[in-house]
Recover the amino acids of this structure.
């Protein structure tokens, strides 16, 4: 994918899937704004340095993307420094798994705020710049559980289902301005989070994946790069499953 002269913002990109996305977009020619919370600053700077090693510009910004004021400050800083914003990847997310009868208000609110509200805040903030350019790509990382649901993840499933609805609405609102909005729904991806699962739980996931293997962060990143490119110019409002067939019904 040729993303030369494009500026991409990737939220939650200090590590894991977000980092893989940021590096892939840089490999394809984009300059990258990497973002995460202050606690992840060391990893964030590491990601930025890896991008610079690819001969691309990198700007590391710590911001809580569940806070509208911090989001607006970040987006305005990017626009002032690089004069354009072409690609937004809404990747920031957390889990607070619990059965719904035991789930606290805090566990519900934390996941909805970081996984869904952040996508709204960031999308709203970049759209005004993309509309002036008459070109833009908004790509949000959803999940198969936003489609299928999952026991013990009512908050996460609701947030990711919300991301899908948000994506489709944005696509209808701004398509006439040359902006596309799509979601990617990863399945079981090898990350530090999934490394903590016991073997019995891992095997249960494998049994439900037709390809009988877990995905890698790079698999998600490749899909993001495609949707960010001119090759995907006629694709909008869609949900692309990167799940080894896990969501087949």
């Amino acid at each position: 994918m040729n993303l030369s002269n494009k500026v991409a913002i990737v939220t939650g990109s200090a590590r894991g899937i977000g980092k893989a996305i940021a590096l892939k977009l840089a490999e394809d020619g984009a300059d990258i704004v990497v973002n995460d919370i202050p606690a992840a600053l060391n990893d964030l700077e590491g990601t930025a340095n890896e991008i610079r090693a690819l001969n691309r510009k990198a700007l590391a910004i710590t911001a809580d993307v569940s806070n509208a004021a911090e989001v607006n400050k970040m987006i305005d800083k990017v626009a002032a420094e690089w004069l354009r914003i072409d690609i937004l990847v809404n990747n920031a997310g957390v889990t607070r798994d619990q059965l719904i009868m035991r789930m606290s208000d805090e566990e519900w609110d934390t996941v909805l705020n970081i996984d869904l509200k952040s996508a709204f805040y960031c999308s709203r903030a970049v759209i005004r710049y993309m509309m002036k350019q008459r070109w833009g790509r908004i790509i949000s990382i959803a999940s198969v559980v936003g489609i299928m649901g999952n026991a013990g993840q009512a908050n996460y499933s609701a947030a990711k289902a919300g991301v899908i609805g948000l994506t489709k609405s944005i696509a209808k609102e701004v398509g006439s301005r040359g902006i596309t909005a799509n979601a990617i729904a990863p399945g079981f991806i090898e990350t530090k989070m999934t490394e903590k699962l016991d073997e019995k739980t891992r095997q249960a996931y494998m049994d439900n994946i037709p390809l009988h293997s877990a995905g890698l962060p790079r698999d998600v990143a490749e899909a993001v790069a495609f949707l960010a490119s001119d090759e995907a110019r006629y694709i909008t409002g869609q949900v692309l499953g990167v799940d080894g067939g896990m969501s087949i019904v």
Remarks:
- Residues 154 and 204 are 19 Å apart (CA to CA).
